[in-house]
C-alpha cells in the first residue's frame, strides 16, 4: 500500500513540475476546458435558477387548482379552427360551476386583459398587467397583504371601483407616499386603492409584485368579453382530501351538460390542472438542459482535444527523460500515472477556473436582475468538477499509455 502511495506522490510531483516548466502551454491547454465547463455550468445554473423561481412562485398555490378556459395552456390534439370557435367561459359558466359542482373550496372568474397605463397625479406607470378577477383569487393564489385589504365578495359582485396593487407597482406609483385610500386612474377610470400585497419576489413578468387586481364585474361594464372579446377563465380550487381525478370528471360531465354537449361531441373547453402545468415546465426545463449539454459539449470536446494534443507534444519532448527513468527501473505504471496526472490536473484547474467565473457571473446576474436570483448549486459545482476530471482522464489516457509503452533504449537514443 505504501508503495502505491509513494508512486502516486512521485507521479503527482513530476506532473506539477512539468506544468510549471511550461506555463504558457499549460495556460493555453486550460482555456478550452475552462470555456467548456463555464458553458455547461452557466447554462445549467441559469436553467436551475429559472426552474427555482418559477416553482417558487407556484409554491403557495395548491397543485390541484384547475383552470377552465376556451384555450389550452399546453399542446393539444384539437385543431386550431375548432379551438377558435369554442364559446367563452363567461360569468354564467362561473356561476353554474360555483353552485353546482360539489367539493369546491374556492372558485374565481378572471378576465385576461391588455396591459394598462396607471396614473396618479404626475406619476405614470405604463404596461401594467391589471387583472380583473373575482375576490376568491385571494385564496386560490394564496396572496398575502402588506397593508390594507383585498376587496370582499360584496365589492366583487357589485363591481366596485377599487384596486389592490402589487408591492413593486405601489412603490413605482406612490414612492414613499401612503397608497391606501388614494385615487388612481386605470382603464381611463378612477379607482380607489384599498390594499397592497406583500412582496412576492421571483420573475418580474409573472410576479404579483408588478400587477394590479380589480373586481371582474367592474371591468365587465366596459370590456368586451363576448365570443371575439378578451379571453376569460375560471379558476377552481378543490377541497383538501378530494379525489382530484374524480372531481375533474364530475366537473367535466356537469359542464358538458350545461353546455348542451351530446355523447360523442368533443369538449368545447379545456380543463388544465396546475400540476399538469408544472409537469410541462419540468419537460421544458429538461429539454433546455439537454440542449445546453449538447451545445456546451462541443466546447468540452475542443478542450479535450486540446489537452490530448498538448500531452502528445509533452510525451514527444520528454521521450529521452522517459527512457532514462525506465532505464533506472521506473515501472510502466509510474510513467502512465505521471502523464495521466498531468492531463487531469490541467483539466481540473481549467474546470475550477470555469466554476469561479460562473460563480462570479451568478453574483453579478442576481444584482442586475433584481428579484430574479441566480443560484450555483453544490450539485452543479460537483458536476463541473467531475466532468473536468473525466475530460482530463479521457484526454490523457492515450498519450500516457503511449509514453508508458516506450522502449527505454529507443527513448534514450531519441535524445541524442
TrEMBL record:
Residues 293-408 form the ABC3 transporter permease C-terminal domain. GO terms for molecular function: transmembrane transporter activity. It comes from the Bacteria. It is found in: Cell membrane. Residues 26-253 form the MacB-like periplasmic core domain. One of its GO terms (cellular component) is plasma membrane. Belongs to the ABC-4 integral membrane protein family. This is ABC transporter permease.
